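User: Quick sanity check before I run a bigger batch. Here is a single chain. Can you write out its predicted 3D structure?
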Amino acid sequence: MKKTLLQLLTVSAVAASVLLPLNAAPASAQSGQTPAASVNGELAPAAGHYSDHGKLMLTQQELVSRIAQLTEKKPLVIQQWLKNYEPDARVTRGEAARIGMKAIAHIPSEHAAVTDIKVLSSATLEITFDSPLTAADVNLDKAKTNFRFDNGMTIRNVPQLKNGARSTYVVPVTVQQPGKTYTLTYKGKAAGKFTGSAHTVKLAAARQVTADTFELESFRKDGVVDYGYVVESYFGTRGGLEMYLNDRNASGGKSYDIISSLRDMSVTLTPEGGQPIRAAYVPYTQATDDRQAPKFRLPAGQILTPGVKYTVTSDWATVTEGSFTARTAAPLVIASAKAVSPASVDITLTADPRDELFSGRSVELTDGDGKKLTAVYKVTSRKGAVGTFDLPAGTQLSPGKSYTVTASGAWATQQGKIVLNTDALKSS
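Assistant: Done. Predicted structure follows.
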């Protein structure tokens, strides 16, 4: 029997069990036997969980946890389905029936089919399915196999389920050619056609950040929102700034453009009187520290020339204030280093950069014999002024050795000589 059918029967069992008459326990409970939890032994209330004056012994936390497993959602998302979530509160029969029946519609299916395709902008689609996608089908490698476009278009990152939606996904794609007709096949089946759009996302301003990096900032007040605020996978990680957009991508009467994942994207940076430079998006920087300000970095070894005016252009975004004059930018300063495991080092700066400026950076660790190791920043690990840097797989620090720490490149300097002591690793 297929997993999806088992799941459907499981949730149905919950809905049915909580609709039992208040005073009628199942025969198995009356005889002292333990009823089957469900078809797959997970969800229906066990003996002792049956109703007591309209409430089950099942707590809201238990119900949320089991529904989250069935629907492949975060428990926090399921908590929003309850009017007033209280972990230890017992579930009423009506609540369990309502949540159980709602869950049925949200069970992912490996047989999901496309029902609608909307073009949101030149690099973003919104695709609706007849059922939610499974976790396996939103894995990037699998998604690249499932989603096939003609005319050179490809998917750039995983489909992201919109907050509050049953099966509507934000899908980042390579930039479309305006007016060209594209055909989508999903899992080998024809899924629809759409026309390429010239619509670009409106960004507010370009601004230099470091000697080789600049940012493109946008604001929700201008009707532009980063996808991290409106998709389920990031729900609960945005400091309460999450949004629910309707099927017209509006909220509170205001329409929004969605900046989808910028993975593999770039912009053109042109110095006044000079040749265009391709600046690539720096991963994991597009919505950090409550700002929508993705970073873009010049090719390795290149820096912005102080006093020169640069202009940003793009085929996926329009920048209102797209020019800035480069200045001399002071590098970050490393204050200390600490070995947190044989393969990881915490690097502390003299001040919190208040942004994801570690992304794409690395440090060199040199032992007393001159042997060098390189540790690369672990994305999204920064906490204030501290970021974790990992050694390559199979490489470890030698317990008892001391290492001198320096930045790889000019992104940071050191506050004096930074020595990494590994004595603590001897006992780990």
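Residues 332-425 form a domain with the Immunoglobulin-like fold (CATH 2.60.40.2320).

User: Great, the batch can go ahead then.
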